[in-house]
Design brief:
By secondary structure, the chain is of the alpha/beta class. It contains 15 helices and 18 strands. The protein has two domains: 157 residues, NAD(P)-binding Rossmann-like Domain (Rossmann fold, 3-Layer(aba) Sandwich), CATH 3.40.50; 193 residues, Dihydrodipicolinate Reductase, domain 2 (2-Layer Sandwich), CATH 3.30.360.10. It starts with a strand and ends in a 7-residue tail after the last strand. The structure holds NADPH dihydro-nicotinamide-adenine-dinucleotide phosphate (NDP). The site of NADPH dihydro-nicotinamide-adenine-dinucleotide phosphate (NDP) has 33 residues, from helix 1.
Length: 420
């Protein structure tokens, strides 16, 4: 019996909200609030026409504005706030949750919209030097809220999507059930889907393109090792998908896992990309279209990557056209009872099956389902403790059970092929 406020109504939010409606034993009332309220109203109408027992309301909110958020939260009085807007809004929503004394959940760590902001830039450049990785996003901003959430007796659960989110739970699960000591983790994110466009992104284009055009990095013996973008390439034969090229990227769960599992000697993240995607991306980058710095165009300031987003297909619209499967999981090496051991835990998700069930493609699906699961565990008190946490810091078992129940069943392979 809980009331949830969901902020954002994009591809991921639409899945998370519909999964909350499938879990109506926990979620009895939902408010969907976003910048464009017509999207929230359309989703509400759709869900109501399907006869869901969950009571849904909608609202307009500017999640960059704390006062606007406080007004909405204090009026609706939710048991928790699920932030599935953009990472730019993480801090304002956390501030508003603290002020209104409400638990906070999100799927991606904070990054600034304006990377030229001198105040942010100074802190960022110091962090690059101290920590040794140059990604725009990192956990330091949200971890800095830990004491405030502890003092308020509130929970902030960060990054409960698939990666990060499920992948981090896979690590906690492997450690709990299969290893005395984990030596290495390779997180492999394979999208074998084809949407039939020359170029599109699977989730918010701005966030996605910023991530994949940045330097790669991995953690070795507690230190970051940075690479050029797409410098490290491997091939892997993914179960149910087949052979794919994959590239080493920086990814946010490496930072949290490195902190919470300091005994792991090497943590890497790989994502698959086809040659056509990479060629398009390189060309867009070379002509300046991935820039986050505003330029003047015909008397108006525009941000090139935001203009590009307006031209690209909306990820939420890819569902009907995308065929194929995703395979996302973690390969471990380590020791159990004094013997060397390897393990692969992964989920395979079929784009068309997701579309049949919820009208979404698998990337939104694989993120929205864990967003609902993390929220449900916080709301039910199973993953509730004061402070700011990532998903690897709780008992993984209830989360793993819910993955099986809500559409993301996982496989354990105790004899996987390792990544060279
Ligand atoms: P979309 O761009 O599809 O949706 C974002 C939503 O947030 C839109 O409804 C948008 O409104 C709304 N929004 C944006 N700015 C504001 C604002 N200032 N105030 C209120 N609402 C706002 O993104 P996705 O659904 O693809 O991604 C959602 C989140 O999920 C992102 O943070 C992304 O990084 C994360 N993600 C996490 C993954 C994981 O595995 N952990 C994987 C994929 C995504 P409008 O409709 O007006 O634009």
């Amino acid at each position: 019996m809980a009331r949830l406020l969901v902020i954002g109504c994009g591809g991921v939010a639409q899945v998370a909200i519909r999964k909350c409606c499938q879990n109506s034993g926990t979620f009895t009332e939902l408010c969907i609030a976003s910048r464009t309220v017509s999207k929230c109203d359309a989703l509400k109408d759709k869900i109501e026409s399907e006869g869901s027992p969950v009571k849904i309301t909608t609202a307009t909110v500017d999640a960059d504005n704390k006062e606007d958020l406080v007004k909405l939260i204090s009026g609706y009085k939710p048991d928790a706030v699920l932030n599935v807007a953009l990472p730019y809004q993480d801090l304002t929503i956390m501030d508003a949750c603290l002020e209104c004394k409400v638990d906070y959940i999100d799927t991606a760590n904070y990054e600034p919209e304006d990377t030229d902001d001198p105040v942010w830039r100074e802190i960022y450049e110091k962090r690059c030097k101290e920590k040794g990785f140059t990604a725009y996003f990192d956990y330091s901003w949200q971890w800095a809220y830990d004491q405030k959430f502890k003092d308020a007796g509130l929970t902030a659960l960060l990054g409960t999507g698939f990666d990060p989110g499920v992948t981090s739970v896979f690590v906690a699960y492997a450690k709990k059930h299969y290893f005395d000591e984990i030596d290495t983790v390779d997180i492999l994110d394979c999208n074998g889907g084809d949407y039939g466009y020359p170029f599109a992104t699977n989730f918010n284009p701005e966030i996605n393109l910023r991530e994949v055009s940045a330097n790669g990095s991995y953690m070795e013996n507690g230190k970051w090792v940075e690479t050029k973008p797409m410098e490290i390439k491997r091939e892997y034969d993914f179960p149910e998908v087949g052979m794919k090229d994959m590239y080493l990227l920086h990814h946010e769960e490496i930072e949290a896992l490195g902190k919470n599992f300091p005994e792991i000697k090497r943590i890497r993240f790989f994502m698959t990309f086809g040659q056509s995607y990479l060629t398009h991306m390189k060309c867009l980058e070379n002509v300046g279209m991935l820039s986050t710095s505003p330029v003047m165009f015909e008397g108006r300031e525009i941000v090139p990557i935001q203009f590009l987003k307006a031209l690209l297909p909306d990820p939420a619209s890819l569902g009907p056209r995308t065929v194929g499967k995703t395979n996302i999981g973690c390969i471990f090496t380590g020791k159990k009872d004094g013997k060397e051991k390897t393990l692969y835990i992964y989920n395979v998700c079929d784009h068309q099956e997701c579309y049949k069930e919820l009208g979404s493609q698998a990337i939104s699906y694989t993120t929205g389902v864990p967003a609902m699961i993390g929220t449900s565990l916080v709301i039910n008190g199973i993953w509730k403790k004061p402070g700011v946490f990532t998903t690897d810091e709780f008992d993984p078992d209830p989360y793993m059970d819910m993955l099986n129940k809500f559409g993301l069943p996982w496989v354990v392979d105790e004899d996987p092929v390792l990544v060279p």
